[in-house]
Design a protein that fits this description.
The chain is an alpha/beta fold. 38% of the residues lie in helices and 16% in strands. The chain is built from 52 helices and 50 strands. A six-stranded mixed β-sheet has the order 47-46-45-48-49-50, sandwiched between helices. It has a five-stranded parallel β-sheet with strand order 4-7-11-3-12. Strands 18-21-25-17-26 form a five-stranded parallel β-sheet. The two termini are 57 Å apart.
Length: 1451
């Protein structure tokens, strides 16, 4: 604790600063009493004074004032806060996003010597454990090694009891019902605690103390709320900023003050501690003039946003389309630093502004209207920002020329700037080196890379953290590794993932070996403490609120961790040492930890600069996140650079390289929105990065006869692309003159004692080391007493591809459907190579701990051993990772790090790392060095429905060499089956192979929902081999009874079987009813019936409807609506004319052999009665025979498409995920129900707030809302004879209505039309779908009539705008609008950009347009001008289900 004299000295220093701020208009006076003064020490601003008290916990007092207290606006805010403090009122500081509000609060606390507790809110914050109390399992010293559950006070409780100020940052980010837990504490200073204590108001406690002893109050578990307890809440106004609005009871308890930013650089910390050594200096006067002009620009733009509602006549986006993006609060401070240190940057003002103004180029580009507005403003202020082309440029006039010691040298061509810069502990790599800085990787120092590394080094020298934004494969990782090598940093990579929480970024809960709990630092915190470079890889995956939770760490280098410990920047930590007179060890014991001054953060985000992105893809980048980083654009490589890079790193044949680069150039244009809707589906489904091109070229260099066509298909995993994407890929390959081989070469396998040859690939066999005694037992055996592997041509070809990549040092990813032989193929290859295999199978609950540590019990003691992963890394074995798509995303991200950089942090604190460079040291206790023979072979199922895993390939597939493992071709599959079932007739095997081929094609076409594989076919022939007398229809039931209720599937199955001569007796329910037969005779099985309730039903005699009553009936033959009886309409019985279920009646089903024991004349009578019921049904719905015939003709034309669309619609999962408590977690808050499990050593004892993904097929809480907007204008009728567009429109409408008729629980849809008469003609009302064929027929008749009799004209724009607005009026899980048009827009002067704006008017609505008619190429031209991926052409009705699948699955 500081002494009295020191405290007086500090107070005097603060008062002297205040006195220096005196002005003529406002009197600011301060005074300090000596120690004998009854009032104690005070600080005053004007006539408002507040007493100062000694701090009991000195580290809880902010070490420095964050703002300049000579500023009058700051003093006014501080004086207001003093008044509220003296009145005992809680404070709410509200204002634009940025550090100003937090800095103001901390400045006040520093000035008044107040202790504080700080919490940054986010959507994962818990009201109970984060604010109130949490439980920990700790060692009980009284019990020796025993454990006990202990309550630990949260920030709000500590602040209330200790008399501290509770600072709550980011109020708008908290979930609903989180903050109300504080309402009673705010209003009455009372709170019930989970450990049984009760916080009471200080006045009430003091009154009780008058009549009772303190011991009595303690026994009553009463705790006094300090009279010095206050709350300072920080938030942004909602709206206009995103966030949750304030709960009225919570809001009413605060006094609020709007804190407006001056946008002059005073909001944050910058440059004050950075000395400058330079051969040139910025002209201070000129710089101040420039900064003043820039400040005027920033303030003008911000003011335009503030008054936009007054200037616009509507709330539409178009009304404010010329508004420039908002400036982050820290823009001027950053530009001031940049121009001060690097004066020549001020010659390209707009390019420099983009580093602190990401809204102009990240996921967007300034429109011509926006640029005109900016240029006009700049002209008025005499500021030269260049022309419109400048907005797409990036770069710096400087070049990093050397890093020497702790200085970096930058040259602009004429002068040199020398700046002190932090460096890491590793040996600095010379600038001339061709190493990236990562082990074993070569760096090609192109001009683009030199510029990029220079800009990173500039930001580093300025003390800024960095965000690199660029497309996939543009060199973000390579440039970071180059920077790492030049500045000697160690790297801690944090792989971001979509479900990552704010807490995951700082600390995770863990369990020790004895069952006690602890908090484990994240890689980011370790980097901060050890002075490393933290790489936040994939910032675009996480939510803005999660990123913003790091604001204080990024901007101030300070943070409060979940375990209550405090991170302080190095200067403040050193100042605290002096003030407190403690040692660093003592501060560490008190939970105060020093952030290393060399610590830096580089984040990466994969987005194409200057290209418009969907609003959903920009959810990570808000104005608040914009204040945290210096944003650096990573531009796409041009063709020349990429070619030089590939040539330098590979010896690829020139002719193939030229074709490959031409293909890549065309392919990447699709991702930039320069393709049609079909082509954009391809760009969204896969990518072709420079890394993948280099991988292809390495193969081509090593094996010149390699097939380029196959290499591209393999890289893109083309067999698993959506059908539209596959078509687009084939077209682009053809345009690039890349053709498929006519015949694949056949490869043979040759094995010797020392080598393995597969075709033209020869590899040395693995040699087991003498010390590796268990290796031999780990070699798979597929031949001798193993699971069995049958050689075939296709699998041999895949093994050859695996051998090529293994020889080139790649890690492998095998993706395929179930049952195609991924595991056996892998085991066979390892067996041939003599490789020992370590195996790990991932699943939903896989954790870092379970992946890296394996608990075993020896002699009654739990022993923790290395997992298969660690053993494989240490001993140079192959690690087979199975079911990788089933693991949590953060686990697969860790595997990416291991494959990409050879690094991985283990649960016990050790780290896997590559072999060290020369001169590098190894920490033998912590470092696990990767053996050079270590490889990973990762196995995963294909992405998408019906597979229920994560998209492993889409997330991290780029770092693996990928191979699609498909079902064998016909010849290979037949060869394999003959080996497995030699006794089965070869012709029957051949027919089965062809039939299964048709079923697989039906899956690809969307006609069936299950991808039938080799595994199912193998099981069928194994049964045929073992039981040759069983009939085929009953053997097929072993596979197909899963789908017994799917009539549409069995239509496809029967067609496939009969096509190839397999005329089975029955399928589906018919096969079930037929049962087993021997020599054509049904097997007779006796069933003994006991007298009583369950007696035999009456004999079947004459079908009838039955008598009607309201009573339940089981058995019998008199009453309608019963079950288990005979003759009457009912359920589960026999010989009834049709099915009829009476609500509330129990369902009893007769055994199949009793159901089928019905005379033929009775069956025929039942069928006749059913036909008469159908005729009556048609009469009831008033449908004539002619109308029924027309309806059937339209239906038959799209019956296959209806089946396809049903499969698509059934496969769409719920988008809305309920925020709830997820249990059985390995980190989070201790679950009270799991305390006993924790004491026994169980690790999954936590719960955490998260989004619970509904089980596939489970009922949605809210339906998906669909709206179909049909063109029923005159042109539809007029041009129908030209291209059948009206017929196609009617077919599409029927397809939609038929497909959705049984999915009312998942979808609510409506259909509207538009024509020259109206922009909204109601055809099907929302929630009121047509109930029968006639009602659907009437919809079609209405559409046809409108197009025949309406006036000419087009209201596509108005109809689209109205549809997007109307659909969100209903609460739904998701929103889709599909506009169907005949592309006749140009005739009516409709511009594609105008339609595009209306389609994207609401980020919640997924709107697409489908052109079903076209004159010439007009439709395809329009798709290239409309938003990428949202415009399609379907001149064939069969394409529509595929397009619907692309739309529904992409969101």
């Amino acid at each position: 604790m500081a002494s009295k004299n020191e405290r007086n000295t500090a107070a005097v220093r603060r008062l002297q600063q205040l006195q220096a701020s005196l002005s003529g208009q406002r009197t600011v006076s301060t005074s300090v009493s000596d120690a004998s003064n009854d009032r104690g020490d005070r600080v005053c601003i004007g006539d408002v004074c507040i007493s100062l008290q000694d701090a009991n916990t000195v580290e809880k007092v902010p070490v420095e004032g964050m703002l300049d207290i000579s500023r009058m606006d700051v003093l006014e805010h501080l004086q207001w806060m003093m008044r509220k403090d003296l009145l005992g009122q809680d404070i709410f500081l509200i204002g634009p996003p940025g550090p100003l509000k937090r800095h103001l609060a901390l400045t006040y606390l520093h000035l008044t010597n107040r202790e504080h507790e700080y919490v940054a809110l986010h959507r994962d914050i818990s009201a109970e454990s984060d604010l109130k109390q949490r439980r920990e399992i700790v060692r009980d010293e009284m019990l020796g090694s025993g454990l006990t559950a202990k309550w630990v006070d949260g920030v709000a409780v500590r602040a209330a009891i200790e008399g501290r100020v509770l600072v709550i940052d980011g109020i708008e980010k908290a979930e609903r019902n989180v903050l109300p837990v504080l309402n009673n504490l705010l209003e009455n200073r009372e709170m019930n605690l989970e450990d049984g204590r009760h916080i009471v108001h200080h006045a009430r406690y003091d009154a009780l103390l008058q009549n009772h002893t303190r011991e009595e109050l303690d026994s009553w578990r009463l705790v006094r709320a300090s009279d010095r307890f206050r709350v300072i809440a920080l938030g942004v106004p909602v709206p206009p900023y995103p966030g949750n609005s304030l709960d009225p009871p919570f809001r009413s308890r605060f006094q609020v003050r709007y804190v407006e930013s001056p946008y002059d650089g005073s909001e944050g910390r910058h440059l004050r501690s950075i000395p400058i050594e330079s051969t040139t200096h910025a002209n201070a006067a000129e710089l101040n003039i420039l900064l003043a002009k820039l400040r005027d620009v920033v303030q003008a733009v911000q003011y335009a946003h503030e008054i936009k509602d007054q200037l616009s006549i509507s709330s539409s986006e178009a009304a404010t389309s010329s508004l420039l993006p908002s400036f982050p609060q820290t823009t001027i401070g950053g530009l001031s630093d940049l121009f001060t240190l690097f004066p020549k940057e001020s010659e390209q003002i707009f390019i420099a502004m983009q580093r602190y103004w990401p809204g102009t180029w990240v996921g967007a580009n300034l429109t011509s209207e926006q640029w005109a507005a900016l240029a006009s403003l700049a002209t008025k202020l005499q500021l030269n920002i260049g022309d419109h082309s400048t907005s797409r440029k990036s770069g710096t006039p400087y070049e990093l020329t050397a890093v020497r010691g702790s200085t970096a040298l930058f040259n602009d061509g004429s002068t040199t700037v020398t700046l002190p810069t932090p460096v890491g502990p590793k040996k600095l790599m010379p600038i001339e080196s061709t190493d990236t800085g990562a082990s074993g990787h070569r760096f090609v120092n192109t001009p683009r890379y030199r510029d990029l590394v220079t800009r990173i080094a500039q930001a580093h020298a300025m003390g800024d953290d960095i965000c690199l934004v660029g497309g996939k494969g543009t060199g973000k990782t390579s440039s970071i590794m180059r920077f790492v090598g030049l500045f000697g940093y160690n790297v801690e990579t944090v792989h971001m993932y979509r479900d990552m929480t704010a807490r995951d970024l700082l600390q995770r809960r863990g369990t020790r070996q004895d069952g006690s709990t602890f908090w484990e630092d994240s890689g980011l915190v370790r980097a901060a403490l050890e002075g490393k470079l933290a790489v936040l890889d994939g910032l675009h995956w996480v939510r803005a609120g999660t990123i913003a939770s790091l604001q204080r760490l990024v901007q101030d280098r300070e943070a409060v961790l979940p375990d209550g410990s405090i991170l302080l920047n190095a200067d403040n930590f050193d100042a605290l040492l002096k003030r407190s007179r403690m040692s660093p060890e003592q501060l560490l014991e008190r939970g105060v930890r020093r952030v290393h001054p060399s610590f830096r953060i580089i984040a990466t985000a994969s987005m194409l600069p200057h290209h418009k992105a969907n609003k959903q893809d920009l959810m990570w980048l808000t104005e608040e996140v914009g204040t945290m980083f210096q944003f650096i654009e990573v531009s796409t490589m041009d063709v020349t650079e990429e070619a030089s890079l590939v040539r330098a790193l590979t010896a690829c044949p020139e002719d193939k390289l030229a074709h490959l680069l031409a293909f890549a150039r065309r392919f990447r244009k699709l991702a930039e929105g320069e393709g049609s809707g079909h082509e954009t589906v391809l760009a969204k489904s896969t990518a072709l990065s420079t890394r993948q091109i280099i991988r292809i070229c390495k193969r081509l260099a090593a094996y010149p006869d390699e097939d380029l066509y196959s290499a591209i298909h393999r890289t893109c995993l083309s067999p698993f692309l959506p059908q539209l994407a596959r078509q687009a890929l084939a077209e682009i390959l053809a345009d690039s003159n890349i053709r498929a081989r006519q015949h694949h070469p056949k490869y043979d396998i040759e094995i010797s004692d020392t080598s393995l040859r597969i075709g033209d690939v020869t590899l040395p066999k693995y040699v087991i080391r003498e010390l590796d005694v268990e290796a031999k037992a780990l070699i798979p055996h597929t031949s001798e007493n193993g699971p069995g592997f049958f050689d075939n041509e296709v699998h041999t070809r895949v093994m050859r591809e695996i051998a090529v990549d293994y020889g080139l040092g790649e890690h492998l990813l095998l993706i395929g459907n179930q049952g195609v032989g991924k595991n056996k193929l892998t085991d066979r290859f390892l067996e041939l190579m003599g490789f020992p295999r370590e195996y790990v199978q991932l699943h939903r609950d896989t954790t870092v701990q379970s992946l890296t540590i394996q608990p075993t019990v020896e002699n009654g003691i739990i022993i923790y051993k290395d997992s298969p992963l660690v053993r494989a890394v240490k001993n140079g074995r192959i690690l087979v990772v199975d079911e990788a798509d089933k693991a949590p995303v953060h686990i697969t991200s860790i595997l990416k790090s291991l494959a990409e950089s050879g690094e991985m942090v283990l649960a016990d604190g050790r780290r896997i790392r590559p072999p060290p460079h020369a001169g590098e040291t190894i920490d033998h206790k912590r470092d696990v060095i990767t053996h050079p023979d270590f490889r990973m072979i990762v196995l995963a199922n294909r992405p998408g429905y019906p597979f229920l895993g994560n998209d492993f390939f889409g997330s991290i597939g780029e770092v693996f060499s990928c191979h699609a493992v498909e079902n064998p071709d016909t010849a290979s599959e037949l060869s394999l089956l003959r080996q497995a079932a030699p006794a089965v007739d070869p012709m029957t095997l051949e027919k089965l192979v062809h039939a299964f081929g048709d079923l697989r094609q039906a899956f690809d076409n969307g006609l069936v929902s299950y991808p039938y594989s080799l595994r199912e076919l193998m099981n069928i022939v194994k049964h045929m081999q073992a039981y040759p007398d069983d009939p085929l229809d009953q053997i097929l039931r072993n596979v197909f009874d899963f789908d017994v209720h799917r009539k549409d599937f069995f239509e496809v199955l029967v067609k496939a079987l009969s096509k190839h001569g397999l005329n089975v007796a029955a399928v589906g329910f018919n096969a079930v009813k037929r049962g087993n037969t021997v020599d054509g005779e049904k097997q007779k099985l006796e069933v003994k019936w006991e007298q009583g309730k369950n007696r035999m039903p009456p004999e079947a005699s004459q079908p009838k409807h039955g008598k009607v009553d309201n009573q339940p009936h089981v058995g019998g033959n008199q009453w309608a609506g019963g079950s288990g009886g005979s003759d009457t309409a009912g359920i589960g019985g026999r010989a009834g004319p049709y099915r009829l279920h009476k609500k509330g009646n129990p369902i009893v089903r007769l055994p199949d052999h009793i159901k089928n024991d019905v005379p033929e004349h009775v069956k025929e009578a039942a069928r006749q009665m059913g036909r008469e019921a159908l005729k009556k049904r048609l009469a009831e719905i008033k449908m004539s025979a002619y109308e029924a015939s027309v309806y059937k003709d339209i239906y038959d034309a799209v019956s296959q498409e209806i089946r396809q669309l049903k499969v698509v619609l059934e496969g769409v999962q719920a988008k809305e995920k309920e925020r709830t408590w997820l249990q059985n977690q390995t980190d989070g808050d201790l679950d009270d129900a799991k305390i006993i499990d924790g004491l026994t050593g169980e690790t999954s004892i936590y719960k955490r707030r998260g989004e619970e993904t509904p089980e596939h097929g489970a009922a949605q809480n809210k339906p998906k809302r669909l709206k179909f907007v049909f063109d029923v204008s005159a042109s539809m009728y007029s041009y129908n004879e030209h291209d059948g567009r009206l017929n196609r429109s009617l077919e599409t409408a029927l397809m939609i209505m038929e497909s959705l008729q049984s999915l009312g629980d998942k979808y609510v849809y409506d259909i509207v039309g538009h024509s020259g008469d109206s922009d909204c003609i109601e055809l099907v009302a929302a929630g009121k779908p047509p109930q029968n064929e006639m009602e659907r027929m009437k919809v079609l008749q209405t559409m046809s009539a409108h197009s025949q009799y309406c006036f000419s004209g087009d209201k596509t724009l108005a109809a689209t705008e109205k549809a997007v607005k109307d659909i969100v009026k209903d609460d739904a899980d998701d929103y889709f609008v599909l506009v169907l048009s005949d592309a006749n827009l140009r005739r009516y002067g409709i511009r594609p950009p105008d339609l595009g704006k209306r389609m994207e008017a609401d980020a919640k609505v997924n709107c697409a347009v489908l052109f079903i008619g076209s004159i010439g190429e007009e439709a395809r031209m329009l798709t290239r001008e409309l938003p990428a991926g949202k415009a399609f052409v379907a001149l064939d009705t069969s394409d529509i289900p595929k397009i619907m699948k692309s739309l529904l699955m992409a969101v």
